[in-house]
Amino acid sequence: MSQDSRTPAEFVDPDDLPNNTSANAHFGEVLDRGLNRRGLLKGGLGGAMAAMFAPMAAVSLTACGGDDDVVVSPPAAPAETLLGFTAVARTLADTNTVPPGYTARVILACGDPMAAGVPAYKNDGTDTNYAQRVGDCHDGIQYFGLSASGSRDDNSSSRALLAMNHEYITPVVLHAAGPSPNPRPASQVDIEVDCHGVSINEVAKDAAGLFQAVQNSPFNRRITGATEIQLSGPARGHALFVTKFSPDGTRTRGTLNNCGNGKTPWGTLLTTEENWSGYFFRAAGDQALRSAKVNASFARYGRNATATAAAASRYGWETAGSDDRYARFNTSVTGTSTNGSDDYRHEWFGQGFMVEIDPYNATSTVKKRTGMGRLAHENGAFGLPQAGKPLAVYMGCDSQNEYVYKWVSTATWNPADANATDRMAIGDKYLDAGKLYVAKFNDDGTGQWIELVVTNPAIAAASFGFTEQAEMYIHTRIAADAVGATKMDRPEWVDVHPTTGEIYITMTNNSSRRAAPTGSQTRVDAANPRAYTDVRGGLTTQSGNVNGHIVRFKDANPEATAFTWDVYLFGAEAAADPTYVNLSGLTNDNDFSSPDGLAFTKSTGLCWIQTDDGAYVDVTNCMLLASVPGTLGDGETRTLNYGSVSVTTRIGKKPTATTLKRFYVGPFDCEVTGLCETPDGKTIFINVQHPGDGTAAADLADPSKYTSQWPSNVGYGAGKRPRSATVVITKNNGQRVGT
Ligand code: FEO
Ligand code: CA
Ligand code: CA
User: Fold this and answer.
1) Nearest atom of ligand 1 to the alpha carbon of 376
2) In terms of C-beta distances under 8 Å and separation of at least 24 residues, what long-range contacts does 523-526 make, across chains too?
C-alpha cells in the first residue's frame, strides 16, 4: 500500500505532446504489400501449424500447380510466444499500423455491396440502396464458422459469416454535399436508417488464402433501423409497447445504435441497443399529456422535453414526411387514442434491448429479449457454460454513472442445446425466462448482485411507483437506482476469460467523477477511484476519470449473488503521475486511454483491449493492445488521498513488457472496436469506426482537407471519402495472431 497526501490540484497530468517521439516507426510495415505468401498458404501448412508451439524448421512443403513446383524449405520460424511481437509505437499516421511481420487488409467497408447486382460503391455521396450494402460505423463483430457445404461449422477457419453492428452514421460522408438540415429529405433519411443496424456478411478465403467478402452469398443479410422485430420475453405485449404499427405491443421496427455484441453458446448473435434514446423527437408540452411514470422514465433515459422546449432528435428523421417510416421517430402523443394505438408515443419504449439474431438463417425472426432489461446496452458476454447450471450473461449500461447487470437464465444448461438447429427456440429457452440483477461494488473488494424484482422492498418503496415485474424490464435504470447499484465510469465491453471464467469490463472514462463532487458529479469510490485533470495538447483540460480503467470480477457460480472484484488495469499516459494517474505503471509500449472494446481470443487466451478516446488523441490515434491477464487479487491495495477524502482500491498486478503490448494503431479520427478470430487463431477481424469523422461538409470537394482518407489511402475502394471498415490481421509466417 502506498500513500500520498498531495491535494488534487497538485496532480494535474502534464501536457502530453512530448511523448510523441515515435516518428511512425511502423508506418511502412502495413497493408497489402504483395507478400509472396503463396508457398506458405498453398502447401497445407495451415493444418500443420494449427496447434504449433514449436519451431517449424523441419517442415517442408510443396507449392502446387504449374511449372513452379518446387520443394521449399522455409527458414526456421521462432516458436510461438504470446506477445512475442514488437510493440507498435503511438502514431498519428492515417493508416493501419501493425507490428513487423504482420499484415492488415481491409474488407467490408461502408457501402460495399452485399447482394448480386448491387453496383460497386462510388463513395461520392451518390450511392443508394444501402439496405443491400454494408452499413456505417462498424462496431461489435462476431465470427460464425461455415463448412464448405454451407452449414454451421464452429471449427471452420476458412469460411464464415461475420455479423457486425453499425452503431450510427457519419452523415457528412453519406451525402454528396453532406446532410441537409431539417426538414430532412426522405431520400437522405432512408440512407441513414438503412446504414444502421446489423450486417451479416459471408467471407471466405480465396485461392491465395486471403479472406474476401462474398457479395452474392444467400446468407448475406441486413437488419436496419426499419426491420420488423419481435418483442420477446416477459414484457412482450406490455401497454408501453402499443403503437399504430403493433396495437398488441408485440412487435416493433428497427434496432438502433448497435454497439458491442456477443455470441451465444448456441450459435446466434446478441446485438445491443446503446444510445438509442436521442433518435426520437419529443414535442414541447408532451409532458402534460403523459403519466407521471412515463415522464419519469423519459427523464431517466434522456428524453426530457419540457413545457416549452422539445427534446430534439439526433438526426431529424421524424421531419422527413408524414409517412409512418418517419413519423414513428416522433415519440410524442399525436393521436387521440387512450392507449397509443393510433400514434408512436410508445415507439421509444421499443428500443434499449438485447437483440438476438440467427445469422445462419437469413429469413429468421429477430427478437428483442426484453427480460435482459432496457438499458444503454453495450454488449453481452456469457459466463462459461456449465452443464446443469443456469447461464449467466454479463452486461454494461454505457452512460456516465450507469451500472453493470447480469442475466441468469431459469433454464439450466443442456450442452446438447449448443448444436440445436432451431437456434431461436434455444434463445427463447435461456433468454426469455430468468432473473435480472444489478451490481453493487463494495469498497472492500466484495460485491452483491441485487435482483431487480418488484417485491424487493426498496423497489416497492420507490417513488416511481412500481407495480408489476414487467416494469423492471422497461424502466430498468430506475429500478436499479432504487436498490443502490454502484455508479460506474461508463461500463463498456465485457468479456469472460476463457479458462478462469473471470469477468473483465471496461470503464471507458467519466468526466463527472470527482473527489469532491458538486451538482451531478459522482464521488470517487473503491471501484472507480480516480479523479484528476489532464491537459490535452496544451489547449484543453479534461477532468474526472479521464483515461478509464478495466474492472475484473469473479462469480463463484452463474447464479451467485456475491462476487469479488479488483481493477485489472488503469488507462493512463506513460508520463502521467504514477501515484494518482498511471497506477498500473504503463510505458511507452503499452500506454492507452479510454478502453472500450474488450475481447478474449479463445485460441490464445489473450485479452484484447481497444480504445475510443478523446484524451490522448493529440499524441496517438486509437489502438488495440494485447495482454496476458493475471487473476483477480494478484496485485495490491492502494490508497489515494484526495485531501479530505481518501479511497482505497484494489489494483491488479502491474503489467510488464511481456504481458501488455500495443498491437495496432488505427487511422486518424477513428475508434478501434470489435474483435473476433478464426478458431485456429491465425486471423483476427477488427473494426475501424468513423475514420475522418472530423471532416467538414464544406471541405467535401477537396479530399486533401479530409481528416482521413482511409481506407482509400491503403488501396481499398473508390473515392477518397473516409469509410468505416473491417480490418483482417494475419501473421506473415502463418502463426497465431498475438504471438
Ligand atoms: Fe457505443 Fe459504448 O460505445
Ligand atoms: Ca463501445
Ligand atoms: Ca464507444
Assistant:
1) 2
2) 523/645, 524/640, 524/642, 524/645, 524/647, 525/441, 525/443, 525/486, 525/647, 526/441, 526/442, 526/443, 526/444, 526/445, 526/647, 526/648, 526/649, 526/650
